[in-house]
Write a structure and sequence with these properties.
Layout: E1 6-8, E2 18-20, E3 27-33, E4 42-43, E5 49-50, H1 52-64, E6 67-73, H2 75-83, E7 89-93, H3 99-102, E8 108-109, E9 114-122, E10 136-140, H4 149-153, E11 158-162, H5 165-173, E12 179-183, H6 184-194, E13 202-203, E14 210-218, H7 222-234, H8 236-246, H9 261-277
Parallel strand pairs: 3-6, 3-7, 10-11, 10-12
Antiparallel strand pairs: 1-2, 4-5, 7-14, 8-14, 9-12, 9-13, 9-14
Length: about 280
């Protein structure tokens, strides 16, 4: 935080110098991931942070009167940057992530900002397969396949790593693996909107998957975190509108998660028609 102080000297009128801190603009740096993770966040061609998270934090800055800037860093550099003071805050984060690196550090976390599901996407014909039939699992470097460690340790499942989502999806579509483990909303967004292959891979909710929430974290700005938590409550309706706009929590219930957009639209029309007929 960088406070700005205004000092006025009225020597001609009064022999006492008066120093005032009536103007105090707080500025903070949020460390964010250099990662294509739309619709949650991504980096544009000019290196600018964009997406749901950017709009959310800009809204917080507007409502709270603070100045926020974004320091884009490779994922593996982000936590060290927070721990050594290069950034004031880190997003996304979770108290369940990188626990070894965080040992002995009293990190402070916000309430959950947005919910997510990480799981395995498979070719439609493999939907519902038992875990015993998963022999090779595509992964992005740095990710942890929650729920599969026992099978990995036992040699039942072999992990094949890619540098990013694009490479991992390509590998999965070539059927070099039995599935791809990733954030379901992000992978589905990529298939629907970027790769233009909606439905080529679908989330299998019968296989182990992990639900959680992205949070904001800090080492020392407790008061700011309390203000951010209040913002999440007080601006709930505006935040819900942003979530709806970006579809970051779209259809996280087991019956709908990972469905292609045309199927989701059909279900919404069907639901509306049923409501109107009652």
């Amino acid at each position: 935080m960088k406070p700005l102080h205004v000092c006025s000297l009225f020597a001609a009128v009064c022999p006492i110098a008066v120093c005032s801190t009536t103007v105090s603009a707080e500025s903070y740096v949020i460390g964010v991931e250099k990662l294509a993770f739309a619709p949650h966040y991504s980096i544009d061609a000019q290196g600018q942070y964009q997406g749901f998270a950017r709009d959310l934090f800009d809204l917080f800055a507007q409502k709270s009167g603070v100045e926020l800037s974004y320091k884009v860093l490779p994922v593996e550099q982000l936590l060290p940057a927070l721990l050594n003071g290069q950034v004031d805050l880190k997003y996304p984060d979770s108290d369940t992530w990188a626990q070894t690196q965080k040992a002995g550090k009293a990190l402070i976390y916000s309430q959950g900002v947005v919910d997510y599901v990480d799981g395995v996407l498979v070719a439609p014909q493999r939907l519902g397969q038992p875990i015993e039939q998963v022999k090779r699992l595509a992964m992005v470097n740095g990710w942890t396949p929650w729920g599969y460690q026992e099978q990995i340790d036992g040699g039942q499942i072999e992990l094949t790593y890619s540098d990013d989502l694009r490479q991992m999806i390509r590998q999965a579509l070539k059927k070099d693996t039995d599935g791809a483990y990733f954030n379901v909303v992000v992978a589905t967004h990529y298939l629907d909107n970027i790769r233009a292959r909606p439905g080529a891979l679908v989330f299998d909710p019968t296989l182990p998957h992990n639900r959680g929430s992205f949070k904001l974290s800090t080492l020392k700005h407790t008061a700011l975190m309390q203000r951010f938590d209040r913002f999440l409550v007080e601006q709930k309706s505006e935040i819900a509108a942003l979530k709806s706009q970006y579809k970051v929590e779209a259809n996280l219930d087991p019956e709908r998660i990972g469905l292609e957009q045309w199927k989701l639209d059909f279900l919404e029309r069907k639901k509306l028609k049923e409501a109107q007929s009652q």
